[in-house]
Amino acid sequence: MPTILQIETATEVCSVALAINGKTVAQKEEAAQNIHAAKLTLFIKEVMEQAQLTFGDLDGVAVSKGPGSYTGLRIGVSTAKGLCFALDKPLIAINTLMMMADGFLKQNPGYKGLVCPMIDARRMEVFTAIFDDKLTEIEATNAKIVDESSFLTVLAHHEITFIGNGAAKCSALINHPNAKFVPTNFNSASYMSSLANLAFMDKKFEDVAYFEPFYLKDFVVTTPKAKAI
């Protein structure tokens, strides 16, 4: 019955959960811009206190590996690696989009269509993938610029439910009877529980020294425009 601390910081949601044997027993999260650095360690402490456990009781640490926010992923992965180093526990990395899809499927057990999680990547670009109702990857994780023709081939034959903070901005463009949109937030560490448990049981651990987040796109530094005098 592995006890796993779970961290999700791929979007504006700062989320921490604790799971035992694949079941979430405690969680703490908040959605706001630029809070991860200030709130993540506090949330970890609160979750451990909720579960009345010590860090020594942990069997592993799982982290949402991306894709997603460059800064958010760096903070989440750095914190997870630090805990694993200090506690000598294994590190588990979970694909953020798969975690979101699994959360939707767990909430909708009778659903038989496809699931398309989307993470906002600014303008009309999203990080996305497509999964079936068994969580099999139908379309691999990619960065996609969405327009009126996006997903039409798949939508012609399948119902697709679009989820995530990138889905809302695309709803006006993806106009098809088979396209559904769910506003619920699925960027929660609590949706990592079953995937992290399976990874632990299969001993799918990361090299703590060398593991890096799955950014998908290179980070680009921009220079602010000069203010008018």
Walk me through what this model shows.
With 229 residues, this protein is an alpha/beta fold. It has two domains: 3-96 and 187-201, Nucleotidyltransferase, domain 5; 97-182, Nucleotidyltransferase, domain 5 (2-Layer Sandwich). 28% of the residues lie in helices and 29% in strands. The chain has helices spanning 36-51, 70-87, 96-107, 152-155, 167-170, 193-201; strands at 3-8, 13-20, 23-31, 60-66, 91-95, 114-120, 125-131, 137-145, 160-163, 179-182. The strands form two sheets. It has a five-stranded mixed sheet with strand order 3-2-1-4-5, sandwiched between helices. The protein has a five-stranded mixed sheet with strand order 8-7-6-9-10. Helix 1 crosses helix 2 (70-87). The model is unreliable at 219-223 (pLDDT under 50).
CATH topology heading of the largest domain: Nucleotidyltransferase, domain 5
Strand segment tally? 10
- Unreliable stretches covering 5 or more consecutive residues: 219-223
* CATH 4th-level superfamily of the largest domain: ATPase, nucleotide binding domain
CATH first level of the largest domain: Alpha Beta
Number of domains: 2
Q: What's the Cα radius of gyration?
A: 18 Å
